[in-house]
Amino acid sequence: MLGMRNRLSIIYKNHSKFFSNFVKQRFVLGIETSCDETGAAVVTDSGDVIGEGLRSQKNIHVKNGGVIPSLAQALHRECIHSVVQDALDQSRLDIQDMTAVATTTMPGLALSLMVGLEYTKQMVARTNLPFIPVHHMQAHALTVRMIQRVEFPFLVLLVSGGHCLLTVARGVDDFLILGQCLDNAPGEVFDKVARKLRLQHHPECQGLSGGQAMEKLATGGSIRLLMGKGTQLPRSRTCDFSFSGTRTVADELIRRQETNQEITNHDDSFLENLPDICASVQHKITHHLCTRVVRAFQYCNNTKLIPDNNQILVVSGGVASNSYIRTALEKTCGVLGYNLICPPPKLCTDNGIMIAWAGMEKLKLGIGISDNPQNVRFEPRYAIGQDIRSSVAEANIKVKAVKFW
Ligand code: KG4
Ligand code: ZN
Questions:
Q1: How far apart are the CA of 308 and the centre of ligand 1, in A?
Q2: CB burial class (10 A; 0-12, 13-18, 19+) of residue 302?
Q3: Which of 32, 110, 150, 325 suits a disulfide with 39, CB 3.0-4.6 Å?
Q4: Which pLDDT tens digit goes with each residue over 190-218?
Q5: Residue 65 in 3-state DSSP?
Q6: Which protein residue's CA is at the shortest distance from atom 2 of ligand 1?
Q7: How far is the CA of 144 from the centre of ligand 1 (A)?
Q8: Is the distance from CB of 365 to CB of 254 less than 8 angstroms?
């Protein structure tokens, strides 16, 4: 005779088997065209990436010294269909097998966003699939939950070529802004300084972004050249970021060194102390990021925005793949009792996977699905969430960076 408990457990097991056969797996097709990557991916509800297509325009824009929006648009138009098809082909599924389509509609370059949105509108008109518009920065912040269990609320630092943002992720669609960039984003400074140093012609930096080139050449360099130079909002007790001062002092330093070493822009030679210049700029950017992060920790602890048992800092965006910055943040987190989580570099840069996953998060909760897909508009500027920067400023928290160097 089976005991009641065993009988119940067999019924439960059979039932759950029946149930899992019965419940259809869900798939979201994600599409990203907000800047200079055309990305598409298919993800499942359990976070498996079963298909991906990605084309980067970065090499083309590097030659022009920055993204030209009309060119970016033309390049997105040229390849969006084949990128989506790559993702679907790899997944061995048909568009009709998708549960929904999620596409970046904000923020970003208008002409780039337009391509993904127009393509999606045509696709959903043809297929009747539900359409989930996605906020690009929210997607960056949520990616981590695709690869590991991270519960809300957690702190997020997003650092890329266009953004620098400290935010508290309280839910899939619920973010608080603690601080943001007031001028140049850190990746932009890396790119502009790399260009001043003409690293795109350097034999060791072929095919690398400005930030990657600077990181590579910084190895073994001295970090001292810019210490004490160029203000980074020293008197503002906020979590906002300013990197324009770093850019100015780096430009001045390069000009001085070029004069001293008699190097002109048309020359094929490079400054002798490239490692010191790269390491000093990298250090200065890192130092500023770390002081802001320390203030954010203290603010979140004081206000109980982040509970003691979930002290997590997620760092993402292209600049997050820099290992000097990662190590510095790791040390900073360690001292203040936080855990640092960085998604793998491939998921930190722009891609279709993060958009598909953000769409899946919304789909699971039944939120953010458009009632009228053909009326969805793109928004070049759109805040990630509620701005509480003035409350951070009022808290007037004095901090010192953890000595990470
Ligand atoms: O997130 P992302 O792929 O795209 C946009 O910002 O649109 O980030 C690209 C930025 C570029 O500015 C690039 O120079 C920077 O991230 N970056 C890095 C590194 N890898 C990429 N910056 C510093 N160190 C790196 N290893
Ligand atoms: Zn991005």
A1: 32
A2: exposed
A3: 32
A4: 999 999 999 989 999 998 889 999 999 99
A5: coil
A6: 318
A7: 18
A8: no
